[in-house]
Design a protein that fits this description.
Length: 240
């Protein structure tokens, strides 16, 4: 039976957001509340659809920890995300972790835990389920909620270096100044597989440093098994 490795952050956040209600008590007081029962119903409906699609009841949910190791690399990481979490999200998340098999690793995002489990050999038959484009860094079977595909090591590796060059405005790191997706593809096409050397050269030509390139690489990298110390429960940061 195929194990479903699910990016639970996405589904639970969306369910909590869809379950918010606004109540106006009087002309001076409006309160936002979370409909916990509705949130649970939405989550259960979404997970049922996944079970039916893959004909599997073997499901494992992945959640983000309260702290994030990338903040130690760059304190401004995701600093542009000032919007509050939906009302009732934490309660819904706690219910999910109590109800379903779930994983949270210290200081990691759900994406990283997915990447580690998908590459450490502990699960043979699985599909990684997430709409996050960064998960294409992981060479495995992926369902992004639109299509199912198998990512191979070559394109997965290239995507990491492209992300390092372009940055990610959603996550709040800028990449190499003046390099967008098209320019990044041109740089990597000319690299002929020697991606890191080409990336560093691009940063230096933009009057940035190799340290800048390394910082962006570490922020962009979705951890895999080789990037996780199981004894100390800490990330092993890449430098090239």
């Amino acid at each position: 039976m195929t194990k479903l490795l699910v990016d639970a952050d996405f589904f639970f956040y969306r369910a909590a957001s869809s379950s918010e209600e606004e109540h106006e008590y009087n002309s001076d007081l409006t309160v936002i509340v979370g409909d916990y029962k509705r949130g649970k119903s939405i989550v259960e409906h979404e997970l049922t659809k996944l079970r039916q699609r893959f004909n599997s009841d073997d499901i494992l949910l992945f959640f983000t920890d309260r702290t994030n190791f990338r903040k130690t690399i760059d304190p401004s990481y995701k600093g542009n995300r000032t919007k509050r979490k939906p009302c009732g999200y934490l309660k819904l998340k706690n219910w999910g972790m109590e109800t379903y098999p779930s994983l949270v690793y210290p200081h990691l995002e759900a994406d990283d835990v997915l990447g580690i489990v998908a590459t450490n050999g502990s699960v043979k038959d699985f599909v990684l389920i997430s709409p996050d484009k960064d998960m294409a860094q992981i060479p495995c079977r992926i369902y992004d909620l639109k299509e199912e595909y198998t990512q191979t090591p070559g394109p997965a590796k290239r995507l990491l270096y492209k992300q390092c060059l372009t940055g990610d405005s959603t996550d709040g790191y800028k990449g190499c100044q003046g390099v967008g997706p098209k320019r990044a593809d041109q740089i990597l096409d000319k690299a002929k597989g020697n991606y890191w050397q080409a990336v560093v050269k691009a940063f230096e030509e933009a009057e940035m440093t190799e340290e800048d390139a390394i910082r962006n690489l570490q922020l962009a990298k979705i951890l895999q098994a080789d990037n996780w110390d199981t004894e100390t429960q800490t990330p092993i940061l890449i430098t090239s």
